[in-house]
Specification:
Catalytic activity: an L-alpha-D-Hep-(1->5)-[alpha-Kdo-(2->4)]-alpha-Kdo-(2->6)-lipid A + ADP-L-glycero-beta-D-manno-heptose = an L-alpha-D-Hep-(1->3)-L-alpha-D-Hep-(1->5)-[alpha-Kdo-(2->4)]-alpha-Kdo-(2->6)-lipid A + ADP + H(+)
Shape: globular
Number of domains: 2
Keywords: Glycosyltransferase, Transferase
CATH architecture of the largest domain: 3-Layer(aba) Sandwich
Strand order of the largest sheet: 3-2-1-4-5-6
Radius of gyration: 21 Å
Distance between the termini: 46 Å
CATH topology of the largest domain: Rossmann fold
InterPro entries: Glyco_trans_9 (IPR002201), LPS_LOS_Heptosyltrfase (IPR051199), RfaF (IPR011910)
GO molecular function: ADP-heptose-lipopolysaccharide heptosyltransferase activity
Organism: Limnobacter thiooxidans
Length: 345
């Protein structure tokens, strides 16, 4: 059995899709006549494709050549021809857009599974009814249903980084294992972003307790200013042991570095899911989003959520203008739960 997974466009969603991929890989009813697991390929946009290189259950990753938001019909037909030559038995389309379902259709993959909607039912052979927005299951179950996988059969997502790659990447950025990682960005909007002063106070608490370690801030180019604000709020004596890598790493480098962190303090973000899948201790701050739908998935993860009457609102900006769901979640609540960096690092 040869399966194509059409991947989502968000890093966190890509990580959570691994639960489905892992379940399909282990499903013996999909094994070939030679007793080998099914061969799983992933078609992903450039932003999420690197996630899948760290999964042992993915046979190959095909990077979409399309510009974001554009149809590019002739380019899709050309890409579909390449997929058709791969002779896939089925495709599972994880995003909900029409464009995401076009390529498996153009490639004439015999079985094409996805949620209905967006005028795409006609290009799917097995359209499934989309769960109601008012009763969303956890995201790994949302994806699991597309593969016919029951919740009990869905393991937590797993990412594996080769130790040699981790060591090389640490050396490249002059870091040692055991640092505190912080992911203060919020791509969706400021209603998911813990205040800069709160991040700074937690970083200061860690640096004071771990005299030889660093605090490392991760994010994309859009997070550089906010990360700079956090660094500026640190007490001067501690600032020399804090560094922002926002916009300075590829996603693959960020994953490799994250695997060497002692823990991560983060908003509800893609890197939260990356760290959880790497089995790194996660401290996840939730405000406008729901820890029921997209929690960090490892047994050691800690979730900080005030569950105010107005949350979760799932808005990009606080509709009430105060963001109390995050401001009132104090730095001390998180700092008191930090774990010491491992001895000798």
């Amino acid at each position: 059995m040869k399966i194509l997974i059409v991947a989502p466009n968000w890093i966190g969603d890509a990580v959570m899709s691994l639960s489905l991929i892992q379940a399909l890989h282990q499903n013996k009813s999909l094994f070939g006549s030679d007793g080998q697991p099914c061969e799983i390929h992933v078609l992903a946009p450039p932003v999420t494709a690197p996630v899948y290189q760290f999964s042992h259950t993915v046979h190959a990753v095909h990077v979409e050549p399309f510009a974001h938001g554009q149809l590019q019909w002739s380019l899709r037909r050309k890409a579909a021809k390449g997929l058709k030559n791969q002779k896939f038995d089925q495709a599972v389309v994880l995003p909900n857009s029409l464009k995401s379902a076009l390529l498996p259709w153009l490639a004439r993959i015999p079985k094409r599974i996805g949620y209905d909607g967006e005028l795409r039912t006609a290009v799917l052979t097995h359209p499934l009814p989309k769960p109601a927005k008012t009763n969303k299951p956890p995201m790994i179950e949302w994806y699991g249903r597309l593969g016919g996988v029951l919740p009990d059969a869905l393991a937590y997502p797993e990412l594996q980084v080769d130790p040699g790659m981790a060591t090389t990447t640490l050396e490249q950025f002059s870091l040692s294992a055991g640092f505190l990682a912080l992911a203060p960005g919020a791509e969706f909007g400021p209603a998911k972003r813990w205040p800069a002063d709160h991040f700074a106070q937690v970083a200061a608490a860690f640096l004071e307790q771990n005299q030889t370690q660093h605090a490392v801030l991760f994010g994309g180019p859009k997070d550089q200013a906010f990360c700079g604000e956090i660094l500026a709020l640190l007490p001067q004596p501690l600032r020399s042991r804090a560094v922002s890598l926002a916009g300075s790493t590829s996603l693959a480098q960020a994953v490799a570095l994250m695997s060497a962190a002692s823990q991560l303090v983060t908003n509800d973000s893609g890197l939260m899911h990356v760290a959880a899948a790497l089995n790194v201790q996660v401290h996840a701050v939730f405000g406008s989003s729901s820890p029921h739908h997209t929690p960090p998935l490892n047994k050691a993860a800690k979730v900080y959520y005030l569950s105010l009457e107005c949350s979760p609102c799932f808005q990009r900006e606080c509709p009430l203008g105060h963001t109390d769901c995050l401001k009132k979640l104090t730095p001390k609540m998180v700092a008191d739960q930090l774990v010491p960096a491992p001895r000798g690092v």
